[in-house]
């Protein structure tokens, strides 16, 4: 099996901010980080324009890293058509790894912490020591569901509105694993309850959405259901839907 390039969602590149981009590679077992040899380069495209062109990366890791300077993005328009191309050498072989990226004003940040899970279901932190991983997985699932409906996560003003959705998905994932580890119908019932609560929370979500990508809540940034896809009958704002 080939090298695994770990990436659960497109990368948010925050405009006008110094940030470190990473290339996270793993062996076929999905656990062992892959060592990247010296001499790797990165190219970053904005559409068909190379914003960064075959610049060396740091391979002291894993992971390989590239320090993207604020000045590179400060004057550029927000868009979802960025593409990272990493050309690196793994075990003597040059390989190219790609990752889609969004240039954003502000990324969407997680809103649920472990104590929130404990507050909802007493004793859950003791039952499941790996709940932090479940929380990360749940956050990724919610982001991908938003993206699938053409809702760019970083344009959601009300990140708090996703609290119940993420919390219930994390608990569903935890009890789903317990259902396979312990032959106990109680765990299965909890799993099913939180799965239903997740779907109900998703259906109930309304959030203010930055339709025009200007970073402020205005009259035209009305609330919209999370499950409603963004549909444009004229040209969409720059950077939405592949523009």
Describe this structure in words.
The chain is of the alpha+beta class and 243 residues long. It is built from six helices and eleven strands. The protein has two domains: 101 residues, Sandwich (Immunoglobulin-like), CATH 2.60.40; 112 residues, no CATH class. The strands form four sheets. A five-stranded mixed β-sheet has the order 2-9-8-5-6, with no helix packed on it. A two-stranded antiparallel ribbon has the order 1-4. Helix 4 packs across helix 5 and helix 5 packs antiparallel against helix 6. The C terminus is likely disordered.
What is the overall pLDDT average? 84
SS elements, strand count: 11
> What is the radius of gyration computed over CA atoms, rounded to a whole number of angstroms?
20 Å
Number of domains: 2
Uncertain residue segments? 228-243
Which strand-content bin applies to the residues? Answer: 25-35%
Q: Helices and strands: which structural class?
A: alpha+beta
* H and E order: EEEEEEEHEEHHHHHEE
Count of DSSP helices? Answer: 6
Overall geometric form: globular
In whole angstroms, the N-to-C terminal distance is 35 Å
Q: State the helical fraction.
A: 25-40%
Q: What kind of sheet is the major sheet?
A: 5 strands, mixed
Report strand order across the widest sheet: 2-9-8-5-6
